[in-house]
Amino acid sequence: MTVQSEGVQTHSPSSGSAGGPKAPVLKRQRSGSGAGRLSKATPYLLLLPATLATLVLLGYPAVKIVLISFQKLNMFELIQHTTVWNGFQNYTDQLTSGEFWHTAERSVFFTLANVVLIMVVGSLVGLLLNRLGKRMRLFLSVALILAWAMPVVAATTVYQWLFDSQFGVADWFLSAFGWHSMAHYNWFSTQLSTFAVITLLIVWMSIPFVALTMYAALTTIPGELYEAARMDGAGMWKSFRFVTFPALKPFFLGTTFLEVIWIFKAFTQVLAVNQGGPDRLTETLPVYSFVEGVGNQHYGVGAAIAVLTILILLALTAYYLRIILKQEDEL
Amino acid sequence: MNRRLIAAVGTAAVLVSVAACSSSSTSSTGSSSPSSYAGKTLTVWFMSGSNTPKWTAQVQADFEKAYPGAKLNIQVQQWNGIGQKVTTALSENTPPDVLEMGNTQTAGYAATGGLMDLTSVKSELGGDKWAPNLNNSAVFNGKQYAAPWYFTNRVVIYNKKLWTAAGLTSAPQTLTDFYADLTKLNATKGVSQALYMPGEEWYTYFGMLLGQGGKIAVQQNGKWVGNLESPEAKAAMAVYAKLQGFSKAPKDKDEATPQQSTVFSKGDVGAEIGLSWEAPAPTAIPADQIGYFPLPSDTAGKPMPVFLGGSNLAIAQNSQNKDLAVGFLKIALDDKNEGEFASEAGIVPNNPALNSLANTPFAQAALPAAGQGDTTPNLPQWAAVENTPNPIKQFMTDVLEGKDYATAAKTADDEITKRLNAQQ
Amino acid sequence: MRRSLFGRTWPNAVAVVLFVFFVFPVYWMVATSFKKDTDIISTTPVFLPLNGTLQHFTRAFHSQGFWTLVLDSITVTSCSVVFSLIIALLAAFAVTRMRFKGRKAFLLVIMIAQMAPWEVMVIAVYMIVRDSNMLNSLVPLTAFYMMMVLPFTILTLRGFIAAVPKELEESAMVDGCSRRQAFVKVVLPLLAPGLMATSLFGFITAWNEYPLVLVLNKESAQTLPLWLTQFQTNFGDDWGATMAASTVFALPILVVFFILQRKAVGGLTAGAVKG
Description:
By secondary structure, chain A is mainly alpha-helical. Helix content of chain A is 75%, strand content 0%. Chain A has two domains: 22-68, no CATH class; 72-330, MetI-like fold, CATH 1.10.3720. The longest helix of chain C has 35 residues, at 239-273. Chain C folds into two domains: 1-53, no CATH class; 67-273, MetI-like (MetI-like fold, Orthogonal Bundle), CATH 1.10.3720.10. Chain C: Residues 70-260 form the ABC transmembrane type-1 domain.
């Protein structure tokens, strides 16, 4: 899809004009008769609605969840509207529990595995789209869009049905094509096979975004660059390495950033496919927080896990945040 | 300018349409004198599968006659995620007025102060006639926090056509008979599985545990601890595993995923162990094709003890229509309606005098075992044990899948103990 | 020669395999919803529901209050998407085309906002809405859905605005347009595809949202995801009914996607070609 092509168009060699013409704009503003103060305030006025919305609708709940994480908030306190502070107890309980660290470790590896899969396969599909003829490209794009547009709740249900141990097509397919021990295989009986289904579902849903964005980005690379590379004797790999990759670096950075966030936060898919089972072995941090907080109605504990989750996510993405912010300077 | 105007009008229209959709019927509160009920709405939450159609219609008619102008808004809730839903609802200013609550959960909610104390209106509600053992779960710290509504227990529901095809003519008297019958059924043509019994039907296991003289949790030095490591629990699990061996049902699912009744309704399953509402709809299998008998024990003529599942009706402390809510309970639980409910649903009513009205084929099978039934410890913390992921269910799956009994039981006991002693 | 034939064929072959991989689950959902029960639970899958049935759909449509839920879902989703587009457009324009103090800080906040774990913040949102007496209303739902998609919308629109050549805007201003006029007359039309593409994401998010509406609107003003999950628990392993419900639920998204996607892609490639 086209959504994430921002970086590309800003940074690809073809838009070299981006840095140049801002000076005249500013000059004109300054020379504008008497409107100087107004235009200085303009950007802030434009940001006002977004800032207000973020403060009220996100900032307030975020502060509240941090406050709750320092409270004992169970059924009694919630119903009676009482506030009981218990200091760092929710945090120390979590940080000293093996379960939390196991889940955190699992979440990180789960995210890494999925993001790598999605980025590699998604990019390959994007490259393929660029190579295909017009008709085949449309054909494949339609399939990608269908998969991408499937609502998560519906997609999760379909995957449960596909991998049903009695009438699921997946088992039938595997056994019909020779792997007979897979007939009526229960995919949700072990940690690994459950994760396999969840991963397949997530990868299936996520590849279209990467592939279509990648394709949109590829179309912005001028053909002359490839021609020049070819004349210098570069093969397929080398022209990817020296032409495609540098031009698409912003795309890779931005998309990876988004995918890390999305996969790490993936909730419905992980919870709905097998409720975090078997034996809570497929719970990731958001699911763990939900089970402890909402399921067991220990909302303070759930809030503390949520805060820790965000901190881990920030640590995971700090590198990208820095790079992306640095690029802003070059704009 | 024009465009801006259009934009402004558009925005306003959007806002209005949002507001229009949201202007729900918030009941006007506190304005009326007790005698005028016009415009008042009483909201009642029943759990999915509880309120039978005839009983519901009858109660609705009686209610609207007794309180002219008042409206009864009945909402059916799903079990999935009900904990948070009820807790948040009880914390609101306009909660549902009357709520159905599982008997294992009532104490927990009573402890939060979210339920109205019904002690003073108990006899008005007919409380003097309630069977004491049924009323236990509605009492917390000596106060009445709910009215017992019904009790029920699981029986074997079987497909007569398939049993006849297997050459079976009478209900088994002992477990050994039952095993033999199931073996025959599994060998019969047209039977996909003799019994549908998923691995996590822990209420059935609870009955078997009682049958071995065991307890799910015991008090040690004033502290409640899980008791699955006991030899009784192990013996009961062996019975469960043996029965489950006749089933193709998944070992890692409970009876609600999928609803076992839908599996049984397909007509190629010999039997299931379930409640009355889990019997197939007459459109799927005609009622006269369905038979019921209590799960047998090792002794002939003595049914296996059962888990006494049941529900109470409670009033939210924050209800804005408490007098109306008490009035509703009075109507819903009076002898006429409770009797109708007993005869329609085949459950054990709250008043033993009405027991004879429960004479559906299901009730005839269920009542003999009900006398030997028991429930989970009446503790506010108990509901937490049943929260997903329920450690007892995990324990059952582990044992059925061949994991070491002692390890599985220890893990579950630790978790049960932890939850029973967690701060509420 | 043979090698180049192979070279021309394999991309198409891979494309066909990928096509099947991506389409099959969607196809299977739709196909199952039309099948008779006996075809659904058969040991050999029935791939084409030739003698199909509509019974699953009738059941889905006749569930209580279905059309109210549809209307509520559409209202909430479209309102939240429109509001987030308007707010994001203003912010994205400022961030892309203007230099000012605090610009980077704003971007950082938006990027972090993108990470907000809404599912686990539900209880905080619930308490806020409850304490301001706004439960069982579409208004807070719309507002929070708007916020869920706002960060992404801002970040994405920023890219689209950057792609519109500044020269166009400037020449309009030289021709005597004010900055606002230049934006409305020149930039906005070029942004249309970008706006559409971005709205898709918001549309999906808002359409799907479940944990929040579950606790906020217990009495009324409910949306379709609640219906879908209820349908699942009610009908258990009645996969025909469940798949019919899923199809009904997915259909509006698929339709919107196809309408918007074609224009969005067309417009954007046109914009990108200018290079």
